[in-house]
Design goal:
Helix 6 links the parallel strand 4 and strand 5. Helix 3 packs across helix 4. With 227 residues, the chain is α/β, with parallel strands linked by helices. It is globular and about 55 Å long. The strands form two sheets. A six-stranded parallel beta sheet has the order 5-4-1-6-7-8. A two-stranded antiparallel sheet has the order 2-3. The chain folds into two domains: 146 residues, Rossmann fold; 62 residues. The protein starts with 6 loop residues before the first strand and ends in a 6-residue tail after the last helix.
Length: 227
């Protein structure tokens, strides 16, 4: 495969942006309000890609049908809105990778299950929102990942072919969505992966264990591009 890629699309949390530090602060703030014991960072990190509900269930050891769950969920989102891009950052090497994509006029975008009211402020806080050619959130589609609708919509917005586009994600649903859309998939195993999960079973086209490996991988796949 030596043709110039049509686009490179990223999942957000755990793939493009390391949002776990802010979520750790938010969850511990909520635990403190509730008179509960703080949790450590490594424990929470593995749940971040599964969203707010998963983090609350893990931190409070609750089922989603617990009577307290809706209140805790709503309060967590309120706290998070006030603490969106304080300690979050691009994973090491990805700022350089995004710059490299722009140099080669390869459009990139974000396809996430994170709602728009959280996604846009985080990206704005890191000053990458205007660089993205497409930002697709659950608000914009009928079906969330692993359904391919959001990825296909991003390709439509960019006016590019899914078959020669790449999707990078840190969860099985990302790889499933990418494959269903007919895209080339890259599993980011540095992301927020549960300790019981084995990314090698996801059947991604490529794997990277560190974000700094993405740019060299793209260079090797698309050798027609200059350094």
């Amino acid at each position: 495969m030596h043709a110039k890629p049509a686009s490179v699309l990223f999942d957000l949390d755990g793939t493009l942006i390391d949002t776990a530090p802010d979520f750790h602060w938010v969850i511990n703030q909520l635990l403190q309000e509730e008179g509960r014991t703080r949790i450590d960072f490594d424990f929470l990190r593995r749940y971040v890609s599964n969203g707010a509900r998963a983090m609350i269930a893990a931190a409070f050891d609750l089922e989603e049908d617990d009577s307290d769950f809706p209140r805790l969920h709503q309060r967590m989102l309120e706290i998070y809105l006030e603490h969106l891009a304080v300690d979050s950052s691009l994973f090491p090497g990805l700022q350089d990778c995004l710059h490299w994509l722009q140099q080669h006029e390869i459009p990139w975008g974000v396809v996430t299950n994170k709602p728009e009211r959280f996604t846009l402020p985080v990206m704005q806080g890191l000053a990458i929102d205007e660089q993205a050619s497409s930002i697709i959130c659950p608000d914009h589609v009928t079906h969330k990942k692993p359904h391919p609708e959001s990825l296909l919509l991003a390709c439509q917005q960019i006016n590019c072919s899914p078959e020669n586009s790449i999707y990078v994600g840190d969860h099985l649903r990302d790889i499933e969505a990418g494959k269903r859309a007919g895209m080339i998939t890259i599993a980011a195993t540095y992301g927020y992966i549960d300790e019981d999960e084995d990314p090698q079973t996801w059947d991604a086209d490529h794997y990277i264990s560190c974000a700094t490996e993405l740019k060299p991988l793209l260079k090797s796949l698309y050798s027609v591009l200059t350094p």
